[in-house]
Amino acid sequence: MTIGGSSPDGRPDRLSMDESVGEMVSKLTTDLGQLTRQELALAKAELQAEAKKAGKGAGMLGGAAVAGWMVALFLSLTVMWALDEAMDLIWAALIVAALWGVAAAVLATSGRKQLQQVDPKPDQTVESLKEDARWLKTRKS
Fold first, then answer.
1. Among 22, 45, 68, 69, which residue's beta carbon has the most beta carbons within 10 A?
2. What is the predicted pLDDT for the residue at 16?
3. Among 6, 4, 1, residue whose Cα is nearest residue 17
4. How far is CA 126 from CA 43, 67, 116, 133, in A?
5. Local confidence band at 1 (pLDDT 50, 70, 90 cut-offs)
6. Which residues contact 44 (CB under 8 A, 6 or more apart)?
7. Does pLDDT of 85 surpass 80?
8. In this model, does residue 117 exceed pLDDT 80?
9. What is the rounded (10 degree) CA torsion for 80, 86, 88, 93?
10. Basic and acidic residues: which segments have biased composition (predicted)?
11. pLDDT per residue over 45-74, tens digit each?
12. Are 83 and 19 in contact (CB under 8 A)?
């Protein structure tokens, strides 16, 4: 009985009497298990890196929100009191609110852009799985 492949001298490899089909299946099962564990480890590493980037972006948005809130509060009061000298307090408050609306839009756009750079697809794992599938096809034929 011949097995795919050939020996160094060019003759086809032969199944040795000592190696049974059961042993070959056992080796194949072990190899596939190890391959699966390696692929899962690669996917996990890739996803952790992407999650770290997402966490960074979310943290920046959270920090911007807190800082923006404090600045908005104190600066708004200061500007409103300053504008109250030149106009009615109601108009001063509307002007300050419009300025903070623009600031909020800029922060939201920056944070959204940061989060859009996150790629949740584990590209290396997908490519590696494709290579494994090609390898298995060549082993079958």
1. 68
2. 55
3. 1
4. 8, 40, 21, 11
5. very low
6. none
7. yes
8. yes
9. -20
10. 120-135
11. 888 888 888 898 899 999 998 998 888 788
12. no
Tokens 């001063």 sit on residue: 92
DSSP letters for the chain:
-EEEEE-TTSPEEE--TTS-HHHHHHHHHHHHHHHHHHHHHHHHHHHHHHHHHHHHHHHHHHHHHHHHHHHHHHHHHHHHHHHHTTS-HHHHHHHHHHHHHHHHHHHHHHHHHHHHT---S-HHHHHHHHHHHHHHHHHH-
Count other Cβ atoms within 10 Å, centred on residue 1.
6
The first and second tokens of residue 132, run together, are 């494994």
Q: Which residue has the tokens 């109601």?
A: 90
Tokens at 25, concatenated: 């299946």
